[in-house]
Design goal:
Blueprint lengths: L2 H23 L3 H60 L1 H23 L2 H11 L2 H16 L4 H22 L5 H35 L1
Helix pairs in contact: 1-2, 1-7, 2-3, 2-5, 2-7, 3-5, 3-6, 5-6, 5-7, 6-7
């Protein structure tokens, strides 16, 4: 069983177990939605830590030393800054994350038109696309605790579009990108499901009043 399948199954099992417990104990849809949002965020946080350990460990082996440390800091530091900003200043961070994610997906499309150049770039620099998915998905997950709908769509886009573009264009390795995309996709679906629960909750009182 490969890594993406393990990650997907693990995330699905965690979400299913937590929601099974919550649905059994809680009858309020609002609380169910909150629990689903927090579960998606927690799954994404654990995944980011594991991915960071794996990516950082790989960088410390090749190229290793100061270069490996700088490479790791080059994506970890901006990711953490964006995550903090998403928590404290979601109104400002929302358009920034949307712009960064859009630019990243546009870059994936542009690179897909030159598969040979992309393969050469990835060979020289490692799985940059997969790392970028992780670096953008974690701040988006944090944003989801404040702006759930937007973050849900961002996570789904980050989980699907780069992988789909790479798959269609056959422009790069899929294993690392699939591993990086599965959990953000599941977290995004969790957020959107939570938004759906909240919207259905708000619609019921209106229907009753009518």
């Amino acid at each position: 069983m490969n890594v993406p399948v393990i990650l997907a199954l693990g995330a699905i099992v965690v979400v299913a177990v937590v929601m099974g417990v919550v649905f059994a104990r809680e009858k309020d849809p609002q609380r169910r939605a909150t629990a689903l949002t927090r579960t998606g965020a927690a799954v994404m946080a654990v995944f980011t830590v594991l991915a960071g350990i794996f990516i950082g460990g790989d960088a410390m082996q090749d190229p290793g030393g100061t270069a490996g440390t700088l490479i790791t800091l080059a994506w970890v530091a901006p990711m953490l800054i964006l995550a903090v900003a998403a928590w404290f200043w979601p109104a400002v961070t929302s358009p920034l994350l949307l712009a960064l994610s859009s630019a990243f997906i546009a870059a994936c499309i542009w690179l897909a038109f030159d598969p040979a150049a992309l393969r050469s770039f990835l060979s020289d620099n490692g799985p940059v696309i997969a790392v970028s998915v992780v670096a953008l998905a974690f701040p988006a997950a944090v944003l989801g605790l404040k702006r759930t709908a937007l973050a849900g769509w961002l996570l789904v886009a980050l989980g699907v579009l780069p992988l789909l573009i790479t798959l269609i264009a056959r422009s790069g390795p899929l294993a690392s990108l699939t591993a990086a995309s599965v959990v953000p996709l599941i977290a995004g679906i969790s957020y959107l499901a939570a938004v759906r629960m909240e919207s259905s909750t708000s619609e019921h009182p209106r229907a009753a009043a009518a």
